[in-house]
Amino acid sequence: MKKYRCKICGYIYDPANGDSEAGIPPGTSFNDLPSDWTCPVCGAAKEDFEEIEG
């Protein structure tokens, strides 16, 4: 699964890790995150993330 980086703070969402603080289990792809999910570091919206290699 592809990783995504927050364009504002640089946080990387890694599907292998999920987002435990938001109740997102490991294995959840970025596209399957709820539409109201936000960056756990700076609060940016999903639209503020970009796909990255690796």
Defining traits:
globular, 54 residues, 3-stranded antiparallel sheet, mainly beta
What shape does the CA trace take? globular
The secondary-structure element order is EEE
Low-confidence stretches: none
Q: Approximately how much beta-strand content do the residues carry?
A: 15-25%
Please state the structural category.
mainly beta
The level of helicity is: under 10%
Give the strand order of the largest sheet, numbering strands 1, 2, ... along the chain: 2-1-3
Main sheet summary: 3 strands, antiparallel
- Distance between termini? 9 Å
What does this structure look like?
With 54 residues, the chain is mainly β. It is 0% helix and 19% strand. The chain has no helices and three strands. It has strands spanning 3-6, 12-13, 49-52. It has a three-stranded antiparallel sheet, with no helix packed on it. 11% of the residues are buried. The mean pLDDT is 97.
Brief characterization of the structure:
The protein is built from no helices and three strands. With 54 residues, the protein is an all-beta fold. Strands 2-1-3 form a three-stranded antiparallel sheet, with no helix packed on it.
Topology readout:
Layout: E1 3-6, E2 12-13, E3 49-52
Antiparallel strand pairs: 1-2, 1-3
